[in-house]
């Protein structure tokens, strides 16, 4: 059975399900492949896809460490997370037909504020940090939302 090896992310995007080809081939990250067994295979990248003329697709992957990823949602914690079977054994080949879904294990949060006027200046940030450090040293801590931190009154005011 003849095989075609694909390593270019743009080429892989044409042959693999959209997210796999665009996001995982040749890029480093913390990903999981949910398998038909219910296990999650933790990987850091897909290094190549092997396409057969008969429709079979195999994925060469770099394995991540086994175990539940930090910050995983409770619904995912019951899964069995597979990874490197022994230290340094990071390469594996996966049959794409056994992959139900792919997920990215990355905590991200929007860092943009709604209005630039709400963004504190560097001087305001330093002042607020100095004040917080002083309050912590004195055993009194005031917590205010970041957008209101510059306008928050101090206990001494």
Description of the molecule:
The protein is an alpha+beta fold and 157 residues long. It has two domains: 3-104, SH3 type barrels (Roll), CATH 2.30.30; 116-148. It is 22% helix and 27% strand. The protein contains four helices and seven strands, in the order E-H-H-E-E-E-H-E-E-E-H. It has helices spanning 9-15, 18-24, 74-77, 122-137, and strands at 3-6, 31-35, 40-52, 57-63, 81-82, 91-95, 99-104. Strands 1, 2, 3, 4, 5, 6 and 7 form a seven-stranded mixed β-sheet that branches. Strand 3 and strand 4 (57-63) form a beta hairpin. Residues 109-114 and 145-152 have low confidence and may be disordered.
Characterize this entry briefly.
The protein is an alpha+beta fold and 157 residues long.
> How much helicity do the residues have?
10-25%
Task: Enumerate how many helices there are, as a single number.
Answer: 4
What class, by secondary structure content? alpha+beta
Number of self-contained structural domains: 2
Q: Please mark out the parts with pLDDT under 50 across 5 or more consecutive residues, or reply none.
A: 109-114, 145-152
Separation, N- and C-terminal Cα atoms: 79 Å
